[in-house]
Specification:
Layout lengths: L2 H40 L12 H15 L1 H6 L7 H4 L4 H35 L15 H19 L6
Protein name: TRAP transporter small permease protein
Membrane topology: Multi-pass membrane protein
Organism: Pseudooctadecabacter jejudonensis
Length: about 170
């Protein structure tokens, strides 16, 4: 298996993990909304039904992981924002130059984000920051974002080696 194939497999698996988390977030949101609806009905009979305890805490932590997990896959498959409207009229050499420069810029930004997130992980861990309701340590979620940023940078660099000019 080539490095490119292994990286593509890793990025695809990482995006699928993000998709599963996103599906869990949707399910938890639906359950929480159903709880609020059931509570509105139960109040008619002097009853109560609570929402999902700690819903906001869990969703806040998991959305950050799930959303960023999909960036590398989008980069690898050219599903990111581009200036194709303008570049479709440019000569092939200009299109390739913009593709190379933008890939290098994205890789640099993603690596800078990974670095800053790594520093943030240590700071949040040292400060013992926890979610308000569930009491989960926040720092355990940040390394997932670091991995996503590193994979995003690698996906951008892998796109430099493509022969199709994109």
């Amino acid at each position: 298996m080539t490095v490119r194939a292994a990286l593509t497999t890793a990025i695809t698996g990482w995006a699928l993990m993000g998709g599963v988390l996103l599906a869990l977030i949707v399910a938890a949101t639906a359950l929480n909304a159903a709880g609020f609806t059931a509570n509105a009905v139960a109040r008619s009979w002097d009853g109560t039904v609570s929402g999902v305890p700690g819903y906001e805490d869990a969703v806040t932590m998991f959305v950050g992981v799930a959303g960023l997990a999909m960036f590398p896959y989008a980069q690898l498959n050219h599903a990111h924002a581009a200036i194709d409207v303008v570049m479709q009229y440019a000569p092939p050499w200009a299109s390739r130059a913009v593709a190379v420069l933008s890939a290098l810029l994205i890789a640099a930004i993603a690596l800078a984000m990974a670095y800053m997130l790594t520093l943030g992980t240590f700071e949040v861990r040292a400060d013992r920051v926890e979610t308000t309701v569930l009491g989960w340590p926040v720092w355990v979620f940040i390394p997932f974002a670091v991995v996503s940023c590193v994979l995003w940078a690698l996906a951008a660099l892998v796109s430099l080696g493509r022969s199709d000019g994109t």
